[in-house]
Structures are given as C-alpha cells and as structure tokens.
Amino acid sequence: MRLLLRLAGALVLVVLVALMLAPGGTIESEKLIWDKAAHFIAFGLILWSLGVLFRRLPRTWAALLAIALGAAVEEVQRYIGRDPSWGDLLADALGVATALVIWVVWRRFRPREAFQGPTPRQ
C-alpha cells in the first residue's frame, strides 16, 4: 500500500509541475478566479505529495519546500512565454497553508503512533 501511495504522490507531483511549466497563453480576466483556485488546489496536492514521498520530512519544511517550488515555477514561467504572477504565488502559499492546517487537525484525531503499530516491550 505504501508503494502505491508513493507512486500516486510522485505522479501527482510530476503531472502538476509539468502542467505549470507547459507553454500557454495568458488567462482571460473572467477566468482569473479559476486560475487562482487551480493554484490553491494544486499546491495543497503538492504538499500532500511531498508528505507521502518524504515521510520523515517535517511538514513545516515540506510546506516551505512547496512554496519555494511555487516561487521557482513562477520565475521559470517568465522564460517560457507565460506570465509570472504574485497572485499565483499567493494562491500557492494559501493552498499549502490550508493543506498544512488540515494535516494538523487530522493528526490531532489520529496520532502518528496509531500508524506505526505496537511499540517493542522493554
């Protein structure tokens, strides 16, 4: 099951980065809200992917890595014919922050020890 979850995480990460770096036109103003919603959801999924792929990486570091990835993507978009946007980076960061909050709330109800099995006796 872990291998399948990691493969899904890797696939999600690769597909999302490929979509963000694919050449494309500018977004029309009436579609702007959907573009930001897509960034919000995508970066929540990127944080999930990083958490699945690097289970021992603290989630705050994974969140910073996801936001750094968003900043790098915005910078690269400048050179591939797409428009970089501070609004996109803000939507990325809000998606990561929301996913991090959801993860913290989820862990309060299901502590990590519940996933690791019984502890060895001493």
Concise overview:
The protein is mainly alpha-helical and 122 residues long. It has helices spanning 2-21, 32-53, 59-77, 86-109, 113-116.
Structure report:
The model has no long low-confidence stretch (mean pLDDT about 85). α2 (about 30-55) crosses α3 (about 60-75) and α2 packs across α4 (about 85-110). The radius of gyration is 17 Å and the shape is globular. With about 120 residues, it is an all-alpha fold. The protein has helices at about 1-20, 30-55, 60-75, 85-110, 115.
Highlighted features:
5 helices, 122 residues, mainly alpha, globular, 0% strand
Output mean pLDDT. 85
DSSP summary, beta strand count:
0
Proportion of residues in extended strands: under 5%
Distance between the termini: 30 Å
> What sort of overall outline do the alpha carbons produce when their principal axes are compared?
globular
Biggest sheet descriptor: none
Briefly note the structural class of the backbone.
mainly alpha
* Uncertain segments: none
Gyration radius from CA atoms, angstroms = 17 Å
Order of helices and strands: HHHHH
> Which percent range fits the helix content?
over 70%
| Quaternary structure type | single chain
If helices are DSSP runs of H or I spanning 4 or more residues, what is the number of helices? 5
Layout of secondary structure:
Layout: H1 2-21, H2 32-53, H3 59-77, H4 86-109, H5 113-116
Helix pairs in contact: 1-2, 2-3, 2-4, 3-4
